[in-house]
Amino acid sequence: MALVCIACVSCATKTELSGVWKADSAKARPMEQILVIGIAENDINRRSFEDNFATALKEQGVDAVPSYHILPNPDRLSKESIQQAIRGRGIQGVVVTQLVGVDEREEYIPPKTYVSPNYYGRGMYGYYGRGYEVTHTPGYTINTTIVRLETHLYDASSAELVWAAHSGTFNPKSIDDGVGSVTKKLSKRLAADGFTPEK
């Protein structure tokens, strides 16, 4: 599956995190250098995601490196190739993100009728001139697209998983829009949890 998808809708884009997990043995320490890996079938999407995530992390004070800079061939991504690529570079963490699913939801909102008083006169006996305004709203359908990603952060020295989260991005208008939303959310949460510098 591609890492990101395009969904053109009118609603605003937002990202929510769920199932955030931290290893019990992990001592949260700010990582100043992180390798960013996006798992995708399309190399253009991979590079777009990695660039956006690296930019978001840099805004938090992290020296973030998109993996395609040192691992240009996505077909050769493996634990061994990653460890070899980061050796001697001072990289403290490796963050890996991949798509886990895209949900399409359709909700029908039925028509409604609103009745409100309309006063023709005021004063003590104003209610004698009271009428009512009736407003009808037609039924309509709300379509929601949710792009679900899974992100793992590994300690580069031990290769142990230290942090993980699921994210849901609602109604992305484009690839850049969706990627920008989720990477900003992830970078801020990593900082809040103590794994990157917090600004």
Note the topology.
Layout: E1 14-22, E2 33-39, H1 43-58, E3 63-66, H2 79-86, E4 93-109, E5 112-119, E6 130-137, E7 140-155, E8 161-170, H3 175-192
Parallel strand pairs: 2-3, 2-4
Antiparallel strand pairs: 1-8, 4-7, 5-6, 7-8
Helix pairs in contact: 1-3
Compose a concise summary of this entry:
With 199 residues, this protein is α/β, with parallel strands linked by helices. The protein has helices at 43-58, 79-86, 175-192, and strands at 14-22, 33-39, 63-66, 93-109, 112-119, 130-137, 140-155, 161-170.
Write structural notes for this entry.
With 199 residues, the protein is an alpha/beta fold. Helix 1 (43-58) crosses helix 3 (175-192). It is 21% helix and 40% strand. It is elongated and about 80 Å long. The chain has helices spanning 43-58, 79-86, 175-192; strands at residues 14-22, 33-39, 63-66, 93-109, 112-119, 130-137, 140-155, 161-170. The chain contains 3 helices and 8 strands, in the order ββαβαβββββα. It has a domain at 14-102 and 145-192: Anticodon-binding domain (Rossmann fold, 3-Layer(aba) Sandwich), CATH 3.40.50.
Highlighted features:
Rossmann fold; 8 strands; alpha/beta; 40% strand
